[in-house]
Specification:
The chain has 232 residues and is an all-alpha fold. The protein is built from 12 helices and no strands.
Length: 232
């Protein structure tokens, strides 16, 4: 079946639809945000809209179409930033804005990773990412590798944050609970490098540890990209 983006939203003939694709996608996103992606079904979305399940299939013929609409609805919540001419600064902004978007929708990363985004919102953001690395001397495969690596870093960082929140993780309580075990690891001396990090590292104890780790990690990824760029 053709992608939903290549099919008309409404038939050339027949009654005017009671709902638009945007309304259907927005309802599905509300369900996923509130109850998780597993709660999203044609029946549940129809109930959210106050319509019958059968009538929903007039607009969305399969659940894959619904997921595609959801992904693109999230990607259209805001426009991507315009490039400023400094590739590192542009990529920092893109990464930060993408992280914020993913944090707003805990279900989004897994769904988007499993399906290429081909809707207008997804394409606008991909265009912005590619424009940020265009003109750096990379060939098309190198541009894709650079953008893909950065986006994977952002998704991985957000995944850890979501996992903590879903599990009710309390960092201070966890650190306190490990006290005697941590002392034992230090005393045994079997892991000298790890022990040095345990004693000296400050980021794990910071209230803003996620922000700090994200910023530090992103800079290292950008350093790696800079080293990969062709010489002028």
């Amino acid at each position: 079946m053709e992608p939903i983006w290549n099919r008309p939203e409404r038939a050339a003939r027949g009654p005017r639809p009671a709902h638009s694709r945007d309304e259907i996608a927005a309802a599905a996103v509300r369900v996923a945000d509130a109850e998780g992606i597993d709660a999203v079904s044609m029946r549940r979305v129809a109930a959210e809209l106050g319509t019958g399940t059968t009538s929903l299939y007039r607009y969305v013929s399969r659940k894959d179409d619904l997921l595609d609409l959801m992904v693109d609805a999230v990607m259209r919540e805001e426009d991507p930033p315009e490039p400023g001419g400094d590739w590192r600064a542009d990529l920092r902004v893109l990464a930060g804005r993408t992280r914020a978007l993913l944090l707003r929708h805990p279900w989004f990363s897994a769904v988007a990773a499993a399906r290429p985004g081909l809707g207008p919102g997804s394409l606008r953001w991909l265009e912005a990412w590619l424009r940020a690395v265009d003109g750096l001397g990379l060939d098309p495969d190198g541009m894709l590798a650079a953008v893909g690596t950065l986006r994977i870093f952002v998704q991985g960082a957000v995944l850890g944050e979501h996992a903590e929140r879903a599990g009710g993780y309390d960092n201070d309580a966890w650190l306190a609970a490990q006290g005697s075990y941590g002392d034992r690891i230090i005393a045994e001396g079997a892991y000298p490098t790890l022990v040095r990090i345990m004693v000296e590292a400050r980021t794990p104890h910071r209230a803003d540890r996620h922000d700090t780790a994200f910023t530090l990690g992103l800079e290292r990824v950008l350093d790696g990209l800079a080293a990969f760029l062709p010489s002028p």
